[in-house]
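Training component of the fellowship. As part of building independent skills, the fellow (R.M.) carried out the full modelling exercise for a liganded target. The chosen ligand was adenosine-5'-diphosphate. The inputs are recorded below so that the supervisory panel can assess the work.
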Amino acid sequence: MSTAVSTTPMHNRVQEFVSRPRKMFVDGKWVEAASGKTFPTYNPATGEVLAQVAEGDREDIDRAVKAARRAFDSGPWHEMTPSQRGRVIWKLGDLIEEHLEEFAQLESLDNGKPLSVARIADVPLAADLFHYMAGWATKIEGNTIPISASSRHVKYLAYTRREPVGVVGQIIPWNFPLLMAAWKLGPALATGCTVVLKPAEQTPLSALLLAELIAEAGFPDGVVNVVPGYGETAGAALASHPDVDKIAFTGSTEVGRLILQAAAGNLKKVSLELGGKSPNLVFADADMKATIPGAASAIFFNHGQCCCAGSRLYIEQSIFDHVVHGVAEQAKKIKLGPGFDPDTSMGPLVSEEQMNRVCSYLESGLHEGAEAVVGGHKRPGAGYFVEPTVMVKTKPDMKVVREEIFGPVVCAMPFRDVDKLIAEANQSEYGLAAAVWTRDISKAHRIAEKLRAGTVWINCYNVFDAALPFGGYKQSGWGREMGHESLELYTEVKAVCAAI
Ligand code: ADP
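Fellow's submitted model of the complex:
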């Protein structure tokens, strides 16, 4: 592997981590794939192989599911009190904080994001998620319910229990590898489930480091199993496994549909966090000092590889040129480079495939008559770099306006009429997020109510918190992650009714 492009020295532990093939974590042990196969993960800043990783497939998934089943049905996890469970989850949060630099470096190397961003966003948010969820372990309660079947002769005591759903399969994407693992594992562990986690094949490393800490934190064997591998093999085997009670997936809407089909066999519970094409609405009365950098960051954060990226920028006609110019100036200031370079503000896209995908959208937009005010191309040379791009003169039926690009490409469109604006903003198969920028706070809340999206930001964007539920309307998904809503994804409600 190459460190030639790095200007930040690589942490010794990270150097060691990538220098030999990584095994998978099943039943508390580090094991090779049943097939003995490994697959490469790449450094997207150079295109070179970063590390080799055990390639999980059907047999490995089956072993992991059996281990998770044993750990769920019997053994120490089953016996642990909610307070003890909360304590190990909290400890995991502490351990992530202690290993912040290693995680940030692995994330930057594997995914491409700037090290500085991984240090202040991905890793602290992941630690905070576990700390937040640790508190819920002792607060998962049912209700006592007065039922009308009671009479003078027979009295009933009726109550509900919230019980863990069982063995959970979790399939996560590559855009925030550690954070997505935290969003998935946190509520599953707080509720007492056991897990088989499959990280994305592009970015398996941070989940494997996390598994080391899971063992150190004191989770019993088999409670969390991490099986890296490809989606069509390991992922499909997990989604269709007959002994998995629930599958939680984050990724593309297209694969979300495949997950649903695979889950139909045993009708396992399904939660999905899928794509988006989020509208970002800018009014003439907005504070431009906050709005222009906010609108730029809404699309360019994480190189646009965010399911909630503000990729449709609607700007009130009277300030259209001013805002477009401002966002384009912000784009010009973005320094593309390897994540380890402290001057880098935007790294490469995660893979060659992703770069080609984004470039084909750029070509399609330009071909259909849109114009790039800034950007519009990939950067020549090594690595998967695409210029931050602002497109204008788009039409509502263009692919660049309708489809999720998952890259640093925003379509800026003028509006005059608020009702038409809301209709246009909602005219999408997606409904993950939206934002409104205005000084008129009543208008902002009235519009927030009308937007068909799981999150609406007002005068801000990309604000995430472990306590704030996140998820999609329409084809952006099923269920909400984070917040106490996420506990519902991992619990069954049992009604107990006793004649007394
Ligand atoms: P992207 O297209 O952005 O790479 P995907 O939705 O393909 O995102 O991938 C998200 C996750 O889903 C990854 O962990 C990937 O391995 C997994 N995956 C891909 N295809 C399947 C499939 N057919 N069944 C189960 N998991 C899959």
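The panel noted the following from the submitted structure. Residues 115-136 form the longest helix (22 residues). The domain at 12-274+477-496 is CATH 3.40.605.10 (Aldehyde Dehydrogenase; Chain A, domain 1).
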